[in-house]
């Protein structure tokens, strides 16, 4: 706020105070009038300066375009979209750019890129696999590419935009051919980022991550590269590495919803529901402008994750306190609380979806919290066996049998592990079965 603006505001506030406190009503009226007049003059001056700055900017843009040094309005459009995410504001700059130079191929490239990028974002929000070919934005982007190629047939960036259009339409094979052509013409390492995104949309994260890492090794950087690499790592159940990449993306682009959303998923699968709730809430705030419905869905997920995290955190704290001060009450408290959650339940989810290494990590963490829970030891043994770690699996299943020799499922698991016949259908003790057993049985018999 400029000093003159502050002075006008002080005069108005002082006048109101004088009237309300009945100090001097005439003086208060005069002060309010002076402050209002000053504010109007400031507003007029600001409008004049704004028009003057717009004229100067237009003049600079025109000179740059004539000198072949680029179009300032085109650069302003890119900056506006990255800063605010507003396509409408960015396209106003594109219109001004084309008024100055209607044959600028770079402006056509950026216009098509911004529109199809915005469609891709909304496609992600709506969770649609593809967008119909005759979508107005898709047609506009194609028209921009067509006009740009007429002006500059060797400009590889147009093949980048064309590839994104085809990815949005679900034509991933054609999209990757255009991305390779884009790389062949420009040698831009970001072509590998586009290839990786296309592989992700084809549900092939192993191929995607190879292209993302190649892009990074050749010098590609930015929040979107970190985001896509984090998403690929998330799909491959490498949650800790995914978290690092997604936090980096969030630091570089704090106003974007995508890093927050993916980070929430990574933290949930790492059994950190409170942190996941914070990331989900942040995603909801950033999505509010784009989709009111999706934003509220995120808020709901955040509240759910927070309640789960609060219950689990309280359980851990209460059990630890009781164990230290009133050890005789430990079994009674364990019958009511679950300090080894959410590790156990999320570990079971990992196992059921074939992510055995991630399941092992969480089962092991749960076993550290409640080392005498036989069901946890058995589940850990099955997760180890599915990764070919036979000796470690036998060691864990033997502990489970020792803790609860009456449970037939544990001996069944041991026979399968020893015979090398352990499969994804091997017995995992589920949450419902765990809850149905008594606290004394669950804690096992003392040796």
Outline of the structure:
This protein has helices at residues 3-20, 25-66, 72-84, 87-100, 105-126, 136-151, 157-168, 172-186, 190-201, 205-217, 223-235, 239-252, 257-269, 273-287, 292-325, 330-336, 343-352, 356-369, 374-385, 390-403, 408-418, 431-436, 439-443. It is mostly helical and 447 residues long.
For the structure shown, list the relevant keywords:
single chain
Q: Which helices and strands appear, and what pairs or packs with what?
A:
Layout: H1 3-20, H2 25-66, H3 72-84, H4 87-100, H5 105-126, H6 136-151, H7 157-168, H8 172-186, H9 190-201, H10 205-217, H11 223-235, H12 239-252, H13 257-269, H14 273-287, H15 292-325, H16 330-336, H17 343-352, H18 356-369, H19 374-385, H20 390-403, H21 408-418, H22 431-436, H23 439-443
